[in-house]
């Protein structure tokens, strides 16, 4: 039996105490971060739930549907809500609410053009390798540029990095600013502004987990492509279990940024033993206790050929990795029990979760799912709750409405995918039922994760993502959007109920937010149309802003365009602030951050009145994960005796 004493020393005072105790407790390490250093933190369990692309308007659309389901017969937006936190969804019942900016960085080479996807490294084949751009200087000036990717010119003979920033005058102080809804246009407002230099899910997730601003495509690295410590890593070093749950592929940007340090988000997986990719780092380096989501090779939009198995697409996992896991599901080089899509998937997953013990080294759970005919994600729900769009390409509506698309017939009118990869003799209804049997839903994945993680007496950090909200918004698909929001809401509701039965808000912190917004607007007649026509027809049949009650982009805000085909006008993100709903132990950190600034690469960045930044969301998690003296330890006893100062002693028996 070996006794290992790990002491994490965080203050001058605690170091003085520690040195006086060397003879008592053994070797003292002055390393500021020690793996498995402590098991007592400010908050036992930290849970962040991310609705990818879930801006304020997306939440309102889903809340209106929920209120209609509950009996609200209102016809206008004012009959539901027109500002603030809103009501109708589980996370809108959380006690705290703020708005957060989401911007990242923008970088230009000497005499070049600023681009939000540029790092400060010349050449980006291998993460962190290569030299810094000649003469690079980081200047925290706000520079939104003039195009979706940047566009501003760098007049200097040296490379420059800026922050994109956010200007409430140009973009509105709130997402419900009247200027977006036909109201008076104040001086300086520009409805095109939020399209410029919009962030992506990689850099925003990186900031949400680390508190560091970075560039679009950055996965857990800063602008110099250097690795950052995420909340997942810090929780693991504190002795906690960790989990990543998503409705989209497990190596997509949002889960990836928590458990990988890669310079480009498209580095999804590579054959073993290569490591400069997201999936191999997730499985071999960061090793979350639970890793559940999409990415199964059988989930793709290709049609079936007669009498063959579903085609496999190895976009999200290489055939090398997949074949190895299939051949070695219970004992493998990664140390995971591997599950995938198959009959009775939810019951199989929950049964496996019940047997996983996170206190046993190497006891981890990996699940790889995805509905056939989609794009690597779980079966997509619809606004009516029937999953009627399951098995159809998630990215065929917006693109087919654009002039010049090979699938477009009439500009402005979509021609989306309608053909599922049916087995011989199988009906659409039978196909959907089979996909729902062979794949869990997001709530099921969340339940499985908590079933495992709750067994750790030291607590856990968990991220749950509804990535298909973003995919629906990219496709301008209202029906999929509300369906994905509904599944996310069910997952949040499950977590809230779990918290009530597992220590309450005194031991848990829950943050529900988005990584970024899209450009989506509801017309005043939206509630009436949603109630009388339904989201499916508003999506696929009603092709003007007036007849659909909503539109994407800015063109539909012009009353003169209400009857023109400008509904499908913007298929990507925006730079508008997003909502944050939160409650629990440590909430005061985020509440006290409203209007406050932050540090970016040694520069003090001023806050924006009425807003927080995603840096503050990270700070809230990281402070909740800070270790505190364990009451039963020697240092804990002394720390309590000396005004609560000091550090943490953990005795670990190996």
**What gross morphology would you assign?**
globular
Low-pLDDT runs: 1-39, 634-654
Number of discrete helical segments: 22
> Per DSSP, what share of the residues sits in E-state strands of 2 or more residues?
15-25%
For the largest beta sheet, what order do the strands appear in spatially? 11-12-10-9-13-2-14-19-3-22
Oligomer: single chain
Radius of gyration from the alpha-carbon trace, in angstroms: 25 Å
Assign the structural class, choosing from mainly alpha, mainly beta, alpha/beta, alpha+beta, or little secondary structure: alpha/beta
The count of β-strands is 23
Give the helix proportion (percent range).
25-40%
How many strands, what sense, and barrel or not for the largest sheet?
Answer: 10 strands, mixed
N- to C-terminal distance: 6 Å
In words, what does this structure look like?
- This protein is an alpha/beta fold and 654 residues long.
- It is built from 22 helices and 23 strands.
- A ten-stranded mixed sheet has the order 11-12-10-9-13-2-14-19-3-22, sandwiched between helices. It has a three-stranded mixed sheet with strand order 4-8-6, with no helix packed on it. The protein has a two-stranded antiparallel ribbon with strand order 1-23.
- A hairpin with a 2-residue loop joins strand 20 (598-600) and strand 21 (603-605).
- The protein is globular.
- The termini are close together.
